[in-house]
Design a protein that fits this description.
This protein has about 290 residues and is mainly alpha-helical. The chain has helices spanning about 15-20, 30-40, 60-75, 80-85, 85-95, 100-110, 115-130, 140-155, 160-175, 175-180, 200-215, 220-250, 260-285; strands at about 45-50, 55-60.
């Protein structure tokens, strides 16, 4: 069978198509390769020049291998936008496979526009609800939580009044009155060193909204992405060193700290980058001066 090991050097676009056919994907053609390059699934080839004329541009050996991985993952996703998480994950974690210029296009593809960006915002809201929602939270509170956060993710401005509403919807799902009103207790999820409180969840939402808004405005450039990647790698290095202790403190939430599979790393790359990019944006924005 034609695999990664079968590829030993750079190749032209014709070689990429031949790789795909040899691996059992006869639908791949030159037009599709160009389409995948425009979406950031593959990188632009390197031009080669001769004294007279020019040879066909070449794709690196890693890009040829990436194509085979993408073709395999293509069978598991409904849309190319979801497939963009593969190069994003490789760019986040490993050097030498995906350049930042490609990651920038892949990022725009993953977020998308219109219905796709709405799906990203809603998926983020539902995922956050699953993480922080109390089992006794009312269904109306859950529905309101998803609606409000999805609207914010789609560009609705977070005003002072809107932030107060956000605090309410987060508290309603994290600390339902039927459980917490009489006791006066405050719920904090996760380990003691890094608890997830209502205020922390609100900051989390603000970060997601900031990243989505900046992306939809077309203002996420390579430099900003590289800053976010550096922060992500540094924070993950610290997290990996503490993961065992965090899991021991987390009790019933210990499963959150297990080592993710390679498939999960691909599936989570977009959300991870969305959060860390948003955190970078809100931490760097100018502070309001008190009068």
């Amino acid at each position: 069978m034609y695999t990664w090991e079968s590829i030993s050097g750079p190749g032209t676009i014709d070689d990429l198509v031949a790789d795909a056919h040899a691996a059992g994907y006869p639908e791949m053609n030159v037009r599709l390769v160009h389409d995948w390059i425009s979406k950031g699934l593959l990188d632009q080839p390197r031009r080669r020049t001769r004294r007279r004329g020019s040879d066909k541009a070449e794709h690196s050996v890693n890009q040829r291998r990436l194509l085979l991985l993408l073709l395999d993952k293509r069978q598991q996703v409904a849309h190319l936008s979801a497939l963009a998480q593969v190069p994003l994950a490789m760019w986040l974690w490993w050097d030498g496979y995906v350049p930042t210029r490609q990651a920038q296009r892949a990022w725009a593809t993953w977020v998308g526009r219109g219905r796709r960006s709405q799906e990203v915002a809603r998926e983020g809201a539902v995922g956050l609800l699953e993480q922080v929602g109390h089992q006794l939270a009312a269904e109306t509170a859950r529905t309101r939580f998803v609606r409000v956060i999805t609207e914010l993710g789609n560009g609705k401005a977070l005003t002072v009044r809107g932030r107060a509403e956000l605090l309410d919807v987060v508290r309603d799902v994290m600390e339902p009155e039927s459980v917490f009103a009489a006791s006066g207790l405050v719920r904090a999820l996760g380990p003691a060193r890094t608890p997830m409180t209502v205020e922390a969840v609100v900051t989390h939402v603000e970060a997601l909204c900031a990243a989505l808004g900046r992306t939809l405005d077309g203002a996420v450039d390579g430099a900003l992405l590289e800053r976010a990647r550096a922060v992500h790698r540094a924070s993950m290095a610290g997290y990996l060193a503490q993961r065992g202790g965090l899991a021991a403190e987390a009790g019933q939430l210990a499963d959150l700290f297990r080592e993710p599979t390679l498939q999960e790393q691909f599936d989570q790359a977009g959300r991870q980058l969305l959060l860390i990019l948003g955190m970078e944006l809100i931490h760097r924005r100018p502070k309001a001066h008190s009068v």
